[in-house]
Structure formats: structure tokens, C-alpha cells
Predict the 3D structure of the following.
Amino acid sequence: MPIDSFEPERYELAEPARYKFDLDRRDFFRTLGAGFLVLAVVESIEAQESGGGRGRGGRPPMPQVVGPWLHIGEDGAISAFTGKAEVGQNTRTALTQGVAEELRVPVSSIQLVMADTDRVPYDAGTFGSRSMPDMLPQMRKVGATARELLLDRAAVLLNADRPQLKASDAKITNTATGKSLGYSDLVKGQNVMATAPVGQAQLTPVSDWSVLGTSAAKVDGRAMVTGAHRYSSDQKLPGMLYGCVERSPAMGATLGAVNNTPAEGVVVVRDKDFVGVAAPSSAAARQAAASLKAQWKGGPQSSDNDLFAVLKDTAKPRAESTKGSIDEGLAVADHQLSAIYTVAYIAHAPLEPRAALAQWQDGKLTVWTGTQRPFGVRRELADAFSIPESQVRVIVPDTGSGYGGKHTGETAVEAARLAKQTGKPVKLVWTREEEFSSAYARPAGVIEVRSGVRKDGTLTAWDFHNYNSGGSGIATLYDIPHQRVHFHPSQSPLRQGSYRGLAATANHFAREVHMDEIAHTLGKDPLAFRLANLKDPRLRDVFERAAEAFHWGETSSGSGRGFGFGGGFEKGGYVATFAEVTADTDLKRVRVERVVTAFECGAVVNPDCLRNQVEGGVIMGLGAALFEQLRFENGRVSNARFSRYRVPRFADMPTAIETLLVDRKDLPSAGAGETPIVGIAPALSNALYAATGKRLRSMPLLP
Amino acid sequence: MPERITKLNINGKDVRIDAAADRPLLYVLREDLDLTGSKYGCGEGQCGACTVLADNLAIRSCITPVDSVANKRIVTVEGLERKGKLHPVQQAFLEAGAFQCGFCTPGMIIAAVGLLAKNANPSDNQIRQALNGNICRCGTYPRIVTAVREVSRAD
């Protein structure tokens, strides 16, 4: 995917480099000198693998041969390679299933190497729900190509006709004679696979799936329940020091005086506006950082009290989509409605804070770090230290979640800067406070909606303006003849960027609450009203299935109990979420009693993992819907702790949560890590209105 | 109060350490003993990722000074497995698929073991209450309740 086709709200990808260090010149030349040789070697390998040159924009093209993607050892060990990162969405298991299905081997026999820039083909990153639609077919093609090559080889060795041969359980059997050869025998002395082009081998049809489409257990689950898995923050190297970076008290401040008299064993590193320490323990590092008494200089800073006015005032129109004429659509309407919706900044708050372990050896930098963009972080590191990318290796251990928040490499760069000065490996783990205040936030936004509708419930006009939050999921699937849909980027007072589902959450919130408002204005059932204006069969399907399971319409809302729903489409997935709430009149005591979600994303790859993603998306979305918001004063996040920033806990769980998976075996598989999050906020707002008569148009609904 | 603590009992074994008395247990485990199953998530006892048992009681090791547990039996997630066999709670988490990224899992499992030590048959509400101090940001709470319920039923 070219960079310019990214959703505009991936603001973090357009940020200027945060760090460009003033390195000692001798040091710099020494590093660069050693780098040239290695770079030349790597480029020539890339050229060989890809049949020439680098891809557009300096990115290596996707390798066209099997070798970089799959290796079968003479000992029978099978390794597959992908640039995707595992951050809890269970891509590791799903991709392993894809290779296992096509190669006809057990899932447990495959070691999937992920997100290690020295070992896997280039990948833009793990975001946009692209692993299932893009990487899964690629891994399947690779597996199928390898299977066909093994069949070719077996035909020779077994002196058999191809149609008589059957691949299963890592061996190929001549069905006429019963003789078989294991894959390890077939690859002995052979290296055809390494250079064989990834071909158009027949992929296993969905009707014949025996590994894909099943609830294969999470492949590394055991290491997670025993604590054996080493996340980035658990990595350790001999002689390693612990880093701590002193942060400015407000955004954009510049560093003044620093008390540079470190204790024994402590190294202080100052480089432009970066100042940090490395010490033998994390406690010593924190103490040393505090004793720097760093002075910061900065201008006046913003607070969140005038946030929405700022977002409106600084907006510039960008993307516009129009159909028909709004004036005409409003002229033929019997009713016009206008409403303003807002969403707050929220934090990803991944439970594993950003972490990196950096090591320099002979001018080459290796960093273990939890990121969704290993190759992007490699670029950031190369830029920060003015070295070629070939001198940098980024390794991503399976990571303690990301939700779109771990796209940038500042932690890796900071650890590497400390390691460079100390000459020892340095591990840096951000504190929770740093997570909340130095990472980028999900954009806040203002959404203005004006609509026109006839008495019979036919929508005639839809005028939708999103300020700052983003363009994802902004288009409506309802059939409206006259539409104007605008995204207006603003100047954000807080650092902002990608978040699970991007602006689809905000846009679905505004759209689905507004649809509810129109239905109530007309005195129509909100479900019947939507279906009357909706042709898209896949969205209708999830609405109808969820409504049926929820028993929509069988019990009336009112007197403290309310039913509501919301749904839509984004990134190949269709979702409808229905909710039942109980609430007192002043919304002091609110309980989410029941949530039913129907989700459809094509052919289901792993039902249990998919169900887990849908449930998780709903519960995470419940936090943003009801109470999550980043507050800031004078340019500083003022609630940067779990004791002041409320995330969903066990007590917030719906009493009942039900998930319906619609398995469309006739359609390609789309991703599911993001879209299930978009239905819950409008569902809760609409249910709270039904329960109390109070229309809540701002997320969080219950700050 | 001694200035330094030199011995702890962890996962059934006496281990030698040399730590300032007020140093939080979590960092002794992770940095000195390389027991990294217990996680840092917040440093203020709010998220439960650092939960360990001290004399069968679930505690937040990130805010527990090491001297306060010097004479207690500490159990971390690494100490639950017996001769290659998972603890029933670990097994139940696997079977219920009660995690996504897994970062909260050690603390969750330890908190659940602590609950079951006090109450072998907790209701769903009691499970939710007992684990409410443990955050799963991926939102696998319903599955965790299922896992803990399954263990108590199996006993």
C-alpha cells in the first residue's frame, strides 16, 4: 500500500523525525564506513531475490520466490517468515494455519518468524486490518507452491504419476503403492525451493479447509500462561543497563540547564533536547534522572477547556465527497435535523508500555522493541543515527498489545541513543505516566450532522462534517440521494495518531446516534427506519441477525431500562451491536446489562480467535464510549495514571455478552481487529436515551 | 528494620539477594532474579500485572517493599507449573482462550489462584470482584471469568 493511500488520520506516520542526533563526528564516520560494505551486500541480495532493483519509494519489492517466505530444513523443521507483528490479535496463529493448510502439515510443526527485519521480507506494518486480506493469501500461496514443488520431487523419487500422489502430514504418499517420503527426505540435497517463484498453485478451496476455519489454539499460548514468553520489556543482555529519559513538562519545550554530576555507574546523555540516563538498575536510573533537575523552556500551552472550539477554528477542508445537492435534498424533506457530536482524546494504554532493548556491536545496531512497524522503526533508527538501514536490525517479540498505538519508534531510538554513549546494551521501558503523556492519542473531534427526511421515513439529505478526528468510516451505507461528506483536518493541541478502527468509531457514533434521533423524531422504530433506507445486503444481514438474537422490539424501553444499537461497515467487516442498559434518571448509576454483536468479515479463519477479537473490541470500545478521556492542562496530560484514567474493568463488563459470527465462506477473509469496536458507542448512547430520555452526543457519554 | 534484605523464599526455594529494604519486590524479581513473568504495568498497584502470592495472598509486587515479604512464601507465575504439568488455572486459561496479548495473564492467573485458595467455589460475581484490580486491556474479561469458573467446577 503506498503511503499516500493511508488514512489521513494516521498522523503519526507524517510526523517529522523526533530525533536527529548530533553524534560525535569520529564516531559517525566510523559507523558509516563499516556500513557501506554491508549495505552493498544486502542490496545485491534484494536485487537477486526480486529480479532487480528496489521498489518504488526506496522500498524493497515483495520477494517473488519462496526462499524468503518459507524454509524446510533437512531435519524437517519448517520455518515461515512474515513482517507482520503479533500484538495479541492472533495473527501468528492465523498465518501459521494458512501455511499449515496449504503445505499439509500440522500447525505445531511450523515456526513462524515474525517482524525481524534481518530475517523476514519487508512489510509496511501491522495496521489497517491488512494481515488477513493481504498476508494470509500470500502465506497460503507460498505454502501451496512449496507443496507442489514437493509433489514434483516426490514424483521423481517415487517414480510415480502426479495424480497418484497425496500430500498429508508432512509427507507425500503414492496412493497406488502406499510408499511415502517425508518432506525432510524430499528436500535433502535440494535447494529448488529457495529460488522457485511463488506461483499460481491451486489454493485449497474453502470447502476443503481442514486447518483454516478451525479454532486452532493460540500457538504460543503455553508460554503466555507460564510467564515464559519474553516481551520486549522482559529482554535482557549481559552487562545491560537500564535507561530513563527525562521528559519535558509540556509539549514542545526546549531543554535548558541540566545538573550533570552523575552518581557512580550512571551515564548521563544529553543531545539537543534529549536528556536521559543509563544505570545498573531501573531504580538507580529513575533516581539519576530525577537528580538531573532538568530545566525546560517553553511558550504558552493549551488546555482542554476550549478544545472543540480550537478544532473547529483551525480546520481546513480536505477530503470531500458529494452526491446530488444538499439544498435540494433538504428542500424536499418534511423534517430537518441538526446535531453536533464530539469525541475526546483517548489513550491506547497498552498494558505493556513501550519498551526497547538496544545493543550496538561493531557499528551495527540491534533493537528488540514492541512495535507494529518494525521496518518503519528501522528507518527511524537509521535516520536518527545517520546510518544505513542495513546497519540496523529491529526484532519485535510478540508484544503486549498496541491497538494502533505502537507505530512509531521513539522508545527504540531513545534506548539506542543511551546504548551508543554507554557502549553497553540499554533497556528502556516507559513508565505508565510516559505512556499516557508522551505517546500519541486517538484524535479528538467534532462532527456536525444535518439531515433531511420525509414523513414516510425516506432519507433525502445527509450533510456530515468531521473536524480533526478523521476520515475512516465516514461514508454512509444508507441510501441517501443527496449527500455531502467532509473531513476537515485541524491543528491538534495534543500529539495524535492511529487507534484501533481510527475515526470509524467517531463517525459511526455520530451517524448511528443521528439515525436514532431521526427515527425518534418520526416516531419510527430505529431498526425499521434503518432497514427502510438500506440496501447493502451484508449490513442488513448483521443488523437482522443481531436484532433477532437480541429479541429487539419484544420489550419496550423506558423507566430506567433502555435498548439501543448501532452498526456499520469498515475495513471489510460488517458489524451490528445491540445493547441493553439500566440507568437512573441522572445517569449516576448506569449498568450495561447485555450486549449482542453480529460480525461478518468473509470466510472465518479461526472462529474462536475471531470471537475473542469481537468481544475484546466491544469491551475496549465500551471504555471509550462511557468514560475514557485524556485531560490536559498547560500542554500536559493531567490524568496520566490508571488511577485517574479509567479503563474498563471486570466490574464494567456487561452481565451478558453474546457474539454471532456470520461465516461467509464465499467471500475472502477480511481483518477483524478493528471494526468490531465501532458499534458499541452508538448502541450505548441510543440505549441510554431510550432508558432516560437524555440524548448523549459526546464521547465519553459518562465522563 | 534491616537496611538490606539478603534472602527470600520464592517458588519453594530460598534465594540469595542483596536489595535495599524498601525496594519494591517486582524489581527484585525481574531485575535481580530474572523472573520476568511478573510484569510492570503501572507501578501504582492499579493494574495487577505484577501480582504475586505472599503466603497465598495475592499482592501487588510493584508497591510491596521487599522487607515486608522477607519471611513469607512468595509464589510467582513461574512457580505454578509442577513437573511440566500446568497448574489447573493455567490450563483453564489456555482452554478458555482467556487472553490475547497475554501481558496481563500472569497477574490474572496468580490473582485467580489467590482467590481460589480463599474460596474454592466463587460465584461469577465473586470472581469479578476479586479480579477487579487486574486490567486486561484486550478485554478478555468474560473468558477469564469462564476460565476461573471452570477450575472451581473441576475441583
User: Anything to note?
Assistant: Chain A has three domains: 3-226, 235-297+354-429, 314-346+441-699. The domain at 235-297+354-429 of chain A is CATH 3.30.365.10 (Aldehyde Oxidoreductase; domain 4). Confidence is low (pLDDT under 50) at residues 1-5, 25-57 of chain A.
